[in-house]
Each structure stands twice: as C-alpha cells, then as structure tokens.
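hey so u asked for the seq, here:
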Amino acid sequence: MAWALHGTGLQDIVVTQPVERVLQIALHRPAVRNALRTATLHELAMVLEAADRESEIRVVVIAGGPGVFAAGADLQELAALDSEAALADPRPAHWKAIYGFSKPLLAAVDGHALGAGCELALLTDIVIASEAARFGQPEINLGFIPGAGGIQRLIRAVGKPLAMKMVLTGEPLNGAAALAAGLAAELTPPGECLPRALQIAAMIACKAPLALQAAKKTMRLAYETGLEQGLREERAIFCSLMDSQDKKEGIAAFLEKRPAVFVGR
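ran it, structure tokens below
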C-alpha cells in the first residue's frame, strides 16, 4: 500500500499486502506490548481511511505480535489526563474513524487483547482467536472503566451476565471461552491465528465489493437500531443492489457454472 502511505512516517504500525485485495495492519510497539497510544489510533484511522478509498483493497486484517495483540491503552498518556483533558481528548475521534471503515475488518488475536486492545478487537467485524488469546477489560483494577466502547460492545457481544463479570472483576476470557461466548468466530492453535484470518480474508475478498459493504452496514443495523427500522433499511439496501453490475455478473456466473468476476459496480 505504498501508493497511499509513502512519506507518512508510520511508527506504531506496519502495513503490508500479503494477499491479493487484502491489507494487513500489524500493531508494532513491542517494547510496550502494543499499547495503543493516541498516535497508534491516528495511524490506524489514517490507513483505514486510505484503504476505504482504494478499490484494490477489499478486506483488512489487524494483527498484533507474538503473544500479544494489544495489552491496553498507553498508561503514560492516561496518567496525565484529568476530566477536562479527557473531554478534549482526540482519541474518541480516532476510534470513530476506525469504526467507520466500510469494508470487512478482521482481527487476528494471538495473545493478550486487554483494555483498549479488547475494545479494538470488539469493533472489528470478525475476530479470529488463538488458544493463547486473552480478552479482558481490566480498567476497574486501575480505578476507572472502559471508555472506548468496551462496555457497550462487550455486552452486545457476550451478553449482560458475562460482560458484568468481566468488567466488574477485570478477569479476562481465554480463547476457548471467547469462542463459546460469541466474542470470537473461530479458535486456532497458537501461531495459526493470523494465517487463518488471512485465509478467511482472502475468501471474503473474492466476493462482490458492493455487496460486502452492504452486508456489513445491514448487519450493524441489527444491534444499532430496532427491528422495524432494521428491516426497512435492509430491504432498501437490498433493492439498491438490484441494478449493480456485480449482481448481474453473480447470477450469470452461477447459471453458466463459472467463477464470477466482481468489479465493484
């Protein structure tokens, strides 16, 4: 993705394109276990905004490093915040931009995803976890609470009883428990998480781009709106795809028993 990032001076993440149409973003602050500082979130938002504009990229996978996805927020930054500074903090705008990414977004969690790291995993569309994964919101142990969606998204992902336990005790879930609770979509052995996430991403990247974005948008409606509104908008989005070139190509390819070639129009 050098076309979009040349000269931007990324420091906290490493961006590669290991698979056709799939972008990989690796969190890379190993000295602090990939703690998510403001600059990290800014870089993530910037790269995702660029990828959203690029038709060549259809899916993005966010990964960490060996043994850790992201161990939380940067506590050096949080220690300096008072309530007034927290209200003016630029971090919420970066989180909003990351969540605004319109294409499929996967997380490969092969280690600790705690605090802000868990919040980052929660706002992705599909989480692939390894048996070494640990998901948790331990902010209660530090005298505050999750502030970037860790409560709102967690309770929607795993339900009230388990979310209450995780947030109030600060105890994490292992990979198997995360899978059972619905936080993760698949579980892999350690070391196989990222390859599996890239395999799934490559499978998704072959689908029709407009339909992928429409499906993501429509599924979000299921938990962001009421049923009646969700049904209305789902139908409207369905109808909007009926004139697309990809819809015509998809049906023709199926009837002709050949692979479809989707172009995003």
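The domain at 209-255 is CATH 1.10.12 (Lyase 2-enoyl-coa Hydratase; Chain  A, domain 2). The two ends are 22 Å apart (CA to CA).
lmk if thats what u needed
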